[in-house]
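Q: What does the assembled structure look like for these inputs?
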Amino acid sequence: MAKYFDFLLDDKNTADIVSSIPFAKYLDIKIQQNINGEIIFRLPFAEKNIGNPIIRALHGGIMASFMECSATLMIIGTVAHDYLPKCVNQTTEYLSRSKDVDSFAKVKMNRVGRRVIHSTTTCWQEEGKPVVISHARFLVGSAAEA
Amino acid sequence: MSDKKPSAPAFDPEQMKAMHKMFMGNHPGFLEYQFEVVDILEGKASMRLPYNEKFVGDKVTGSIHGGIITLLMDTAGGLCSMASIGKMTALATLDLRMDYLRPTTRGLSILAEMECYHLTSSAAFVRGMAYEEGEENVAVAHMAATFMLNTKGPDLMSKPRFSDVNGGK
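A:
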């Protein structure tokens, strides 16, 4: 099963990576590339993701889930090819209210160690201004097996 | 921001429970995830998430994904904030920290128990633990979050306003 971000992404390849996490598949997360070739994660809008039905903002927990799934998928695609990295903890900061449209996320791996990865995920919607930022720590390698 | 507690109306957990049931009954997301309100006390709330194959994070062990636990605890934290101010109000999460203490077991429901440890006129500080049902001695996850109170949204204690039934326009 191809699970690498080293080449141009195709739908089959990205669907394979997403389906390695059933919950990411349930959220219907898509993996895309932007014009600079960077990996972008997309959370298509769905009615079930709404948290506040009056102002139609997405649920904070859904945003946090999306960020965690994005970071995990990024690590699977770049470092942890044949196992699942373990999330130790995640801090999510909400900067502005989300809307009932698609959300996008970009993952930056700040440090890739042998046992721990620290990553920052930024999520934005249509204007490109950040809506949510999250910082997460993952266990990889031998630390993920224990 | 002052530390003075907002004047809360008389706390009626049964009314809160009924109101929350009504809120959840119309909510497309909470219907989908099948969250259940277990208990509401003053400043405390607990919610339950039945095990579902859709929410699995690790196919091999059948362990639930951290994201859905975050979603459950965020929702329970919001309910807990409402329980501490004594009325249903719209809330917004300002920040949320999750610690995943151990992987969950296949087939077991998750129980989130939240408490509001401080309340100001505009923010609620909430923390809580998640457990597996029947394994209440070992926690699965810990959450600490801050909620902004009195944001735009449904106020279920008052009669519906024109703006509420017309999508906030």
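Confidence is low (pLDDT under 50) at residues 159-169 of chain B.
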